[in-house]
TrEMBL record, chain A:
Keyword check for Nucleus: yes
Predominant location category: nucleus
Keyword set, alphabetical order: Coiled coil, DNA replication, Nucleus
Matching Gene3D superfamilies: 1.20.58.1030
Protein's job: The GINS complex plays an essential role in the initiation of DNA replication.
Taxonomy of the source species: Eukaryota, Viridiplantae, Streptophyta, Embryophyta, Tracheophyta
InterPro entries the UniProt entry points to: GINS_A, GINS_bundle-like_dom_sf, GINS_Sld5, SLD5_C, Sld5_GINS_A
Record protein name field: DNA replication complex GINS protein SLD5
Family listed: Belongs to the GINS4/SLD5 family.
Automatic annotation (TrEMBL), chain B:
Keyword Cytoplasm among record annotations: no
CDD domains per record: GINS_A_psf1, GINS_B_Psf1
Organism of this sequence: Salix suchowensis
Main localization (coarse): nucleus
Full protein name: GINS subunit domain-containing protein
Lineage of origin: Eukaryota, Viridiplantae, Streptophyta, Embryophyta, Tracheophyta
Ranges for domain DNA replication complex GINS protein PSF1 C-terminal: 149-200
Domain GINS subunit as annotated: residue spans: 49-137
Keywords: DNA replication, Nucleus
Highest rank taxon of the organism: Eukaryota
Location within or outside the cell: Nucleus
InterPro entries xref list: GINS_A (IPR021151), GINS_bundle-like_dom_sf (IPR036224), GINS_Psf1 (IPR005339), PSF1_C (IPR056783)
Family: Belongs to the GINS1/PSF1 family.
Length: 220, 201
């Protein structure tokens, strides 16, 4: 009985390491870390990873109950730890980006839609908190016409007080396949025409924004 | 020179070490705020003067107009400096929640002293926003700050932390100078607060 059970546990384990969700998460995490702006939230991937972590935690208990060799358990634990780190770090990097570009994210629908529901709630709350902190400390003490948090004064036509992510920073990337001119935004056709597969390229982020969103390149 | 105080305020910020806070420079801060009020008064006075001379305020480009413009621009510059000062400090404060701890009382006193009352308040609110996010997704995010190498690490306790502290897999008696072999995720929070150090090698 015990051997049968442990065999099925090992099967689960095989299944766990052979799925590529961890690899996918690693990719999402890398891209998120390297990109200057916030990317689309990988909601179904995160959901799957969470379930796998839960499964692995259950397995671990079974291991302990069955007196499996400590070394095996420890290796298993390490693998689990790594996955958990990836997940936490992924979520953390995103929150930190939201914190950094709070007002910009909230007033730009495109960005707001990339956030998970919880991240949206977080962003709204933070905006309120930071807003009232800035109001209290600075804005309330200024003359009426200069109290906007988004504008320098009422004569400004645009929101000119909002820090925005800099899309013209440089990133290092690698194409997963050969990219032709069609894969890039037409407006950058003068700057970038093609990209070899697997070649490390140092390039301005906004040129490769489109192939990144289409999953054709990875940031490193 | 107009807007020099604002520049000094920002410089105060830039001179500090990255990620660390200087005490809130209330004195200089208030001087800049006062300057803003002053600029505004002079701006209004100039515009009133133009109105009394019944020249078209929008169209005329005389010395009064440019004088008013200078006051307007100085005010905006001062506003930007004030906002940059508070906003950058707020960013450092956000970072405390990640690196040091989520409760105000967990912050070392040296840090607390440097915060203005509104900043303390902000820290509290921001931390609770973070906490409710973590509760919402069901994952603790302020552990596991560095990529894991080993699930267990060796630590030395640097301060008396009391007996019977509950860790995830046992309770431990963490007396000062004692050494333990703990789960990394358990130990990290104490290391961040300077209560333990990791023993390497």
């Amino acid at each position: 009985m015990a051997t049968e059970e442990s065999a099925s546990v090992m099967d689960d384990y095989e299944m766990l390491i052979s799925t590529t969700d961890v690899a996918l998460l690693k990719r999402a995490w890398r891209n998120e870390k390297a990109a200057p702006e916030i990317l689309q939230f990988e909601s179904s991937l995160v959901q799957r990873i969470k379930e796998q972590i839960e499964l692995a935690e259950q397995n671990e208990e079974i291991f302990e109950a069955n007196n499996i060799e400590p070394l095996t358990v420890s290796l298993y634990q390490m693998d689990l730890d790594r996955t958990q780190f990836l997940l936490r770090s992924y979520l953390r990097v995103r929150l930190q980006k939201i914190e950094k570009y709070l007002f910009y994210v909230l007033k730009t629908d495109e960005y707001l839609n990339r956030l998970s529901k919880q991240e949206q709630m977080f962003a709204r709350r933070c905006t309120d908190d930071l807003g009232s902190h800035l109001d209290e400390t600075v804005l309330a003490k200024l003359p009426d016409n200069y109290r906007s948090i988004l504008k320098q004064s009422i004569t400004s036509e645009e929101d000119d007080m909002v820090p925005a992510p800099r899309l013209d920073t440089f990133v290092i990337c690698k194409a997963k396949q050969y990219l032709s001119g069609l894969d890039f935004e037409p407006e950058y056709s003068m700057e970038i025409t093609e990209m070899e597969r697997d070649l490390l390229t140092f390039v301005c982020y906004k040129f490769v924004k489109k192939p990144l969103e289409n999953g054709k390149i990875d940031l490193v | 020179m107009y807007a020099r105080k604002g520049y000094e305020l920002v410089k105060d910020l830039a001179n500090g070490e990255k990620g660390q806070l200087q005490p809130f420079n209330e004195d200089l801060f208030n001087q800049v705020v006062d300057q803003c009020t002053q600029h505004y008064l002079e701006l209004q006075a100039l515009i009133r003067k133009m109105q009394e001379e019944s020249v078209d305020v929008r169209e005329t480009r005389n010395s009064d107009h440019y004088g008013a413009l200078i006051h307007h621009l100085s005010l905006i510059r001062n506003k930007r400096c004030l906002m940059a000062y508070v906003h950058n400090r707020a960013e450092v404060i956000q970072n405390f929640a990640w690196k040091v701890g989520l409760e105000l009382l967990e912050l070392p006193e040296e840090i607390q002293e440097k915060l203005s009352p509104s900043e303390k308040n902000y820290f509290g609110k921001h931390s609770s926003a973070l906490q409710s996010y973590m509760a919402e997704v069901g994952i603790d995010l302020n552990v596991d700050m560095v990529p894991p190498k080993d699930p267990y690490i060796k630590v030395r306790v640097l301060d008396d932390m009391g007996e019977g502290i509950l860790l995830s897999d046992k309770t431990a008696n963490l007396a000062r100078h004692s050494m333990h072999f703990l789960k990394r995720t358990d130990a990290e929070q104490y290391i961040a607060r300077g209560l333990m150090e990791e023993l390497t090698g």
